[in-house]
Amino acid sequence: MRITLLAYGTRGDVQPVLALARELVGAGHTVRMAAGSDFRDRIAECGVEPAPSSMAARDLMTSDDGRLWADLGTNPILQVRVMRRLVLRTARAMMDEAWEACRDANVILGTSSAEPFGPSFAERLGVPFITTLLQPAFRATRSGAATWMAPVPGRSSLLNYAAGKLLVEGAFHWMSRDLIDAFRAEKLDLPPQSTRRYLASAGSRPVLMGISRHVTPHPDDWPPPYHTTGYWFLDDTEEWSPPPGLEAFLEDGDPPVAIGFGSMTTRDPAAATRLLLDGIAASGRRAVLLSGWAGLGGSDLPSSVFVVDAAPHAWLFPRMAAAVHHGGAGTTAAAVRAGIPQLICPHLGDQPYWGRRMQELGVAPKPVLKPRLTAAKLAKAIRDVTGDPRYAANAAALGKLVHAEDGLAAGVELIERYGR
């Protein structure tokens, strides 16, 4: 099959589906991947063809709106407002480049960022579109465990179904509907598509979720072509060497705590760094601080903190006592597989959902929303998550269950079934 995979987003959005793309290449398929220019070299290293792209995810997240979104994105009204501005700024260029990447495909795969417009490409070409998600499907369900903003998170309820209908289904399509209809008319020679019609077709399309049933149980009221495959991990530890001094730091005491917020940026990196350092000091723990796109860290650091720009989670997390992070789907999955406790400080998007699920599974305390994070709250949460043995026991048990899954093999089998 000639497959085009549309996967615009940050590293946490791209890396798991790149693992799936590499597995498809290994199974004999030709795969082209459209993602931000940030990931061109990594895509090529995996034997996948990178589609031309003029956009960089890092530029988006370090823009004024990107920093505002990361700082205050847990405010739902502000989140929708900023997301719509970002969508309007980037969607047309993204669709133009994605369409060029899809013209000769006989199967199109798309992550959440491509879900609103990718099906229109497939409609025009007469080929299958398969949604590949890293979070529960944007589909209403009674299950609290699979509903992003569940009013009744602990059980099955019609209230959860209603919340999914009102707050989740069609949200991405609604934000970009005008742009999509214009593109359908100008480039695809297709009529406008209402959100109702979009949702009706979404229920019949295959949806593959690269998450674990042990983390998000698969609801029985989702449509039959919706599948929970298990996580998609791209391990690259053999190609990475730790920076000088890191291994010595790890060996010079108890396992530290990993702290970092990945691609989440901030309007004041210095203030964010001070908060984290004060919290680490008050917790009494050592820490590896991951600088990330926010640029955390600096020259004046205590001996109990080691700063690295980034490190493969598969290498770092098993050496840690716990992971403090933003709750991105990929980072959460990596910490789950490593079998270590977590503390999640959600910034935006699906991150509050993952924070809640980790708490419900007993591997993390209650999440602390990023705008409400203080040094005192951070210190207390670190002491709690590293001092209570129940978190470590639950995390180890969950990690073993996830290790036993093969999400990549399941994903490839389903793509081959639906794509033929």
Q: Please report the total strand number as a whole number.
A: 12
Low-confidence stretches: none
What is the CATH topology assignment of the largest domain? Rossmann fold
SS-derived structural category: alpha/beta
Q: What are the secondary-structure elements, in order, as H or E?
A: EHEHEHHHEHEHHHEEHEHEEHEHEHHHH
Q: How large, in whole angstroms, is the Cα Rg?
A: 21 Å
Give the CATH architecture of the largest domain. Answer: 3-Layer(aba) Sandwich
Task: Please tag this protein with its features.
2 domains, Rossmann fold, globular, 7-stranded parallel beta sheet, alpha/beta, 12 strands, 420 residues
Quick structural summary:
This protein is of the alpha/beta class and 420 residues long. Helix content is 46%, strand content 11%.
What do these coordinates show?
The model has no long low-confidence stretch (mean pLDDT 92). This protein has 420 residues and is an alpha/beta fold. Strands 3-2-1-4-5-6-7 form a seven-stranded parallel β-sheet, with helices on both faces. The chain has a five-stranded parallel β-sheet with strand order 10-9-8-11-12, sandwiched between helices. It has helices at 11-26, 40-45, 57-61, 64-72, 76-102, 118-125, 158-167, 171-188, 195-202, 246-251, 269-283, 313-316, 329-338, 351-360, 375-387, 389-403, 407-419, and strands spanning 2-6, 30-34, 49-50, 107-110, 129-133, 207-209, 226-228, 257-260, 287-290, 305-308, 322-325, 342-344. The protein folds into two domains: 2-139 and 170-231 and 405-419, 3-Layer(aba) Sandwich (Rossmann fold), CATH 3.40.50; 237-403, 3-Layer(aba) Sandwich (Rossmann fold), CATH 3.40.50.2000. The chain starts with a strand and ends with a helix. The protein has 17 helices and twelve strands. The longest helix has 27 residues, at 76-102.
